[in-house]
Amino acid sequence: MSSASVRFGTKAYVCARYFIRPGKCFKYIDQRGEDVTEHVYEVMALYSYCVLLRDTRNGVRTCPGYNTLSLMLRGSEASE
Q1: 52 exposure class (CB count in 10 Å sphere: 0-12, 13-18, 19+)
Q2: How many Cβ atoms are within 10 Å of 13's Cβ, its own excluded?
Q3: Residues 72/24/2/78 CA torsion (nearest 10 deg)
Q4: pLDDT tens across 54-72, in order?
Q5: Rounded to 5 degrees, what are φ and ψ at 28?
Q6: Cα distance between residue 25 and residue 3, in whole Å
Q7: Is the pLDDT of residue 3 over 90?
Q8: Less Cβ around it within 10 Å: N or C end of the chain?
Q9: Can you give the CATH number for the domain in which 11 is found?
Q10: Domain residue limits at 29
Q11: Alpha-carbon span 35 to 7, nearest angstrom
């Protein structure tokens, strides 16, 4: 993690860096072997240690930590 994330905290850093707020949607491409699945997630709520996401296609909810969310967003940023 960068010195900014250490200084301000992972949640503050990730939210500021990627403009995360409830209602924001982002695309995530999940690649496992030859299988490629595209997900569009909507941010439902921000908690102290995780963020609640809802898959807009099938409504499945997941709650990754901010470190995992940062990796997801970095991956989607690289593929655009």
Answers
A1: middle
A2: 19
A3: 50
A4: 999 999 999 999 999 999 9
A5: -130, 130
A6: 27
A7: no
A8: C
A9: 2.30.30
A10: 3-79
A11: 38
Q: What is the pLDDT of residue 9?
A: 84
Token pair, residue 32, equals: 């496992």
At residue 46, what is the residue type? Answer: L
Domain count, the chain: 1
Residue 42 is encoded by which pair of tokens?
């909507």
Element at 48 (helix H, strand E): none
Q: pTM score, two decimals?
A: 0.79
Please give the single-letter amino acid code of residue 21. R
Side chain identity at residue 52, one-letter code:
L
Which tokens in the block code for residue 37? 């699945």
